[in-house]
Amino acid sequence: MENVVIIGTGCAGWTAAIYTGRANLNPLVLSGTQLGGQLTTTTEVENFPGFPEGVMGPELMGRMQKQAEKFGAKVEYKKVDEISRKDDGTFSLVTDNGTIESKTVIIATGAAPRYLGLDREMELVGHGVTSCATCDGAFYRDVPVAVVGGGDSACEEANFLTRFASKVYLIHRRDELRASKIMADRVLANEKIEPVWDSGVAGYLTDGEGEVRAVTLKNLKTDVESELEVKCVFVAIGHVPNSQFVGDLVDLDENGYIEQKPRGTGTKTPGLYAAGDVADHVYRQAITAAGQGCAAAIEAERYLTDAD
Ligand code: NAP
Prior knowledge:
- The chain is of the alpha/beta class.
- Helices cover about 25% and strands about 30% of the residues.
């Protein structure tokens, strides 16, 4: 029987592991499908305190893992499919490789990229549709590409892609960016980036080999459709929380985020905590996820002490 199982290895998960590790709880961390979470698919993180020169996302996550392991966290490469609570108040986690029992659980599974929901979209992922510029940007050298979205992610992706692409179209459904001012200003000042305002992608057009060659653009004010030649579309329109596997041990809001108690990271089930992007639709920052991981660890530790 574990004291605490932490599901997820983003900022929230590793921080919870550092704190529960230092509290001698020997946490078990389950990696999920993406070790290191969303920051492993980003480039430079400029706003994580303590790194005035910035730090690469994968490096930051690697350092957090090292720190957690230093304090005794064990890592297993498993994905949780189901959680249930037994009559004695402990938890049973069914994974893709066996069942794990634990006294407390911290859910830090983050969120997955949202796609546009267009015809054939998921088939085209890897063939000119992607959500990760860091992963796929270098494949599109000296060709035009598009980014969809108007938030910080879209701006970050667009800027990064200018290192490779001949031109980056930033397709946004409004005529104003949602991104923070510094990111928006950077995009608007970049000569390689051409904003396409008030527009959406209505469909993907492919070549004889099944690779994207263009998109059908729709101007949302005039309904006029046109074709835009791009070799790849980077979709950056937000995320969907990875919360579905938890079942009715938690309440979800209308967008699928886990509801936390008004103060702290507790859920409606005692001993079950939620931290980071799986529960936070307001801040969604690396540092706030880390903060929630810390809070969840402290709450789990107090719960275990009270139960003794
Ligand atoms: P976001 O802020 O929610 O922005 C999503 C963007 O996609 C919005 O511009 C939205 O348009 C657009 N959008 C949503 N659904 C759409 C649809 N179906 N079709 C077309 N467009 C759609 O998401 P994000 O950019 O991923 O950022 C998430 C959080 O992470 C934010 O808190 C952000 O600050 C943070 N973040 C920070 C950094 C950084 O500081 N370096 C980098 C990346 C992300 P509307 O504007 O019209 O709603």
